[in-house]
Fold these 2 entries.
Entry 1:
Amino acid sequence: MEDKLKFLEERRQVVFQGGGDKRIEDQHGKGKLTARERLEQFLDPDSFVEVGTFVQTGLEDASTNEIPLPGEGVVTGYGTVEGKLVYIFAQDFTVAGGSLGELHAAKICRVMDLAAKNGAPFIGLQDSGGARIQEGVMSLDGYGNIFYRNTLNSGVIPQISVIMGPCAGGAVYSPALTDFVFMVDNSSYMFITGPQVIKAVTGEEVTPEKLGGALTHNETSGVAHFRAASEQECLEKLKKLLSFLPPNNLNDAPVLPPAEPTLSAEELLQLVPPDPNKPYDVVDIITRVVDGSDFFQVHEHYAKNAVVGFARIEGRTVGIIANQPKVLSGCLDINSSDKIARFVRFCDCFNIPLITFVDVPGYLPGVNQEDGGIIRHGAKILYAYSEATVPQISIILRKAYGGAYIAMNGRCLGADVALAWPTAEVAVMGPEGATNIIYRKEIEKSEDPQAERTRRVDEYRFRYANPYITAARGWLDDVIDPRNTRRHLVRSLESLKSKFEERPRKKHGNIPL
Ligand code: HXC
């Protein structure tokens, strides 16, 4: 027996060594941790249980401990994060560049299946040269098996991708199918075709960072949701995200002890400028109503004219969506529509109530927007809110004009509780635009058209641009003192705790894509 235990221990050590000291050194030299170091840093101490430790391609003679590709270039298993179970893989760049062959993929699929069966989040720490060239179509089939599971598990368990090295070619599509993508500055890249191929095909010269680095995918393409300066910071952010999420679509998110906001509610009276054309930061409103003033933004660097993210009210996770008046006046455009719709759908999948703060002058006008398909992109928000059956509360802070009033979860799209601040203006369009159309003749005929226009705008604003016409129709449940916003949210969420709403039976809907 002793011999056998010694042999086992030696074999395990070979696997644990991955690509060996030189390659581990190279990995460290690039400012990157190894797969096992990442797992150790991320998971609770001693919680990792490896699955498939000795999986090995082409093993014909098991009597030696000379293993060509230790661990097949990926470490797979499960462990806990702050006590909660997660299934995880970490690609090992020190073994054949973390490239994905048949058994590498099989190991990943195994933990995906276990995650779905056991209802726990699935996390991939990606660091790979892509399809293992030597294995040809077997690698491609491996990717296909992962994509298939990503899709089947979508909406069942949270799936999160963390890019910590190269991620090229079709390999990017597993992260793209998951719910959230994290990237690290200067060491993670995602692209379908790399800089050399682009140069050969189109003649364009671009650095890997500019083409597919963390900044590009967080700010420009919207492929990634979170950006970090280092691997350590990235894993900390991932822990924070997990703290808000339920393990699956049948269980609730963890409930923390309630905490009052640390920022003063009294200041809510001054934060929204009375002049509807003046900007402000909607995050200042959100942080004054949520537990501990703690708001965790998703897609923080993308489509900044909208803000989405997680927070807690009385210890329970909520998803927050808001227009951001300090960027593009908070208009809805193509990118913000995608951002909002995807976030709403995530929350709805995982039973997270939605709170929407509205201050929107409309959809962004422009040839670019029309050419880019604002019609079909904007429709995604309508679809996502209409489809959602989780508790939904909307609060109009200031402007709610035109189609955007509807899109930001107006009562007609299914908001369970619709509230407004006294500063709210609900109308088909802003007073200036409306006055120019309906009082055009009176303004033209007037001796002083400018003064007449100003008078008509003021009159219109006084008579129509307020919350009371909407409230009179019953489309607002109440007009509230801004300082009482949190209290209204707490009570509304409490009353909606056992909300149950069904949709017509169907295979699935056809969201505009
Ligand atoms: C096999 C690979 C590999 C791959 C890297 N290696 N990529 N082995 N298949 N795809 C090996 C290298 O041969 C090398 O082995 C070791 O990993 C480290 O690679 P280096 O090139 O030395 O590292 P570095 O200089 O850091 O460059 C990393 C890299 C580069 C940028 C990822 O290796 C690279 O460009 N690889 C190919 C990327 C690629 O085109 N992949 C296919 C994408 S298409 P040794 O033994 O010398 O240390 C794809 C299709 C998926 O993935 C389709 C899904 C539907």
Note: Residues 96-97, 99, 129-133, 140, 143, 166, 168-171 surround hexanoyl-coenzyme A (CB under 6 Å).
Entry 2:
Amino acid sequence: MNLTQTPIGVFDSGAGGLSVLREIRVLMPDEDIVYFGDQGHVPYGPRPMGQIQDFSEGITRYLLSQNAKIVVVACNTASAAALKYLRDKFPDTQFVGMEPAVKPAAEKTQTGKVGVLATPATFQGALYASVVERFANGVELFQNTCNGLVQQIEMGNLDGDETQRILEDALHPMLDKNIDTVVLGCTHYPFVIPLIEKIVGEKVRVIDPAPAVARQVKRLLEAGGMRSRGGGRIRFITSGEAGSVQEVLSTLLGFDSGVESVRWLNDRTIAA
Ligand code: DGL
């Protein structure tokens, strides 16, 4: 198969990975992308690791069946729970995953205090522990799981009362501790950056790792001779309800594309 003509596979528990897709698109508008949002199972954050691994395996298999030339795990939670598992299970596939951007935050903070927003599964995973151990370097980290925020973003509620309450509850105690940097450790959260910035003010830096992830995808494609010329077609696939995903797509990205709907047969298998 000519890999310059096959799509980049991207997945998330729902719409969060669109924040990564958006950056891939800016950097490589000529690439075809097949995006899978697992709205049938969102949120992943409170789920057991084993179940997230099963879902991630099923989605990877599905994306490969759609000829994905690389798989971007555009979900911190799935990366924390399943990236290693996926690499073991699919040794011939290249994966790009997410990790909370503790390294750039630790390099940039002046106060030595950094806030990290991510899901419970991300904080519990070995990946986060290893990032903290390698990069925190004496910097004090304040964590919050922003319970319910993923669901609000899935509903397209980017600045309503409930979204604001969740973010204020998370960020005010961190501001009291004098943080000057906030790491977005969940791919849904970049969609509420305007609200976060309103709450934390301009002296606090907000770090979204999506542009760096897009650059990594580009590097790997170039290194593997897989960069596309032409194309630029995007397919959106959901395990949820196509109509509501279409609406959120238009709210989050301003895209008016059609959405294809597929269904899970069991935790590891999507109907072809
Ligand atoms: N977008 C996700 C992440 O990056 C997952 C959120 C969830 O499903 O709980 O962690």
Note: The chain is about 45% helix and 15% strand.
